[in-house]
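Subject: two folds for Thursday's group meeting

Dear M.,

Sorry for the delay on this. The cluster queue was jammed most of the week, so I only got both jobs back this morning. I'm pasting them in the order they finished. Each block is the input sequence followed by the predicted structure tokens. Could you check whether the formatting survives your parser before we put anything on slides? The first protein is the one we discussed after the seminar.
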Amino acid sequence: MAVQKSRRTRSTRGMRRSHDRLSNPTLSIDSETGEIHRRHHITPNGYYRGRQVIVVKDSANHTEDQE
């Protein structure tokens, strides 16, 4: 089993841990709709890079059609 030769200082420990923090997700604004979305993901309305790639059904209109 490996045994360290000398104790790691608080400074060295902190410098090692400085890169372990979580970063915020990178956000973009869609050019067509102006919606904020995660980079390389579609918007909630189905747009990606200014083009509509998925037609999203409205949940409110979908329930009215069933009645």
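Second protein, same layout:
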Amino acid sequence: MKLNNAAAAVALAAAVLSTPAIASDKSELLHDANRTVDNLKHDAAFAQAARMIDGARAVYIVPKLVKGGFIFGAEGGDGVLLVRHGDSWSMPTFYGMGSASFGLQIGLEQAELVFIINSGQALRGIEKGNVKLGAGAGLTVVNLSSGAEGATTTHGGDIVVWTSGSGAYAGLTFNGSVIKADTDENAIPATGPEAEELRHNLSTVR
């Protein structure tokens, strides 16, 4: 029974990642990612998390992670990865995120996330195109839920995650989540004002 459930979970995660992008248009996704950075900058509860970006190797921004389903649920969303190069950030590249889970999950919820990537191991795993988060992958993921007491003193972790979500997202975990490169979107490099605006906005996070 456990094997069947595990197989179903993997299949669902794959389905989430293979569905059309939540924000399929690059401009829209970059615009939404820019708004997420603005929200992080103005979230007083995460002043320390914002400052951590200063020393991060990269950030992965998911403007719309959707969680839904009844009894059997899934999370999924599209995001952009920007890598630090000295005092500047790379042009964004596109990655999807999906996971599957079991439990009593009623209704549909949405959150925006910023993954602050601190270790070379985590960045290499993502850049290879398909990384699975959790203890089994050898990556430490620290989740900072909006309004969590003491969040500004939390340090460490290969990846630190800021989320604006509420409700079920207050205890959101990422074990089993998969981050996978969007080869179609990355076939043509991101350019234009939206990409430049996102790079500039990220460079002003303090």
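Two things I noticed about the second structure. The longest strand covers residues 72-85. Residues 2-18 form the longest helix (17 residues).

Cheers,
T.
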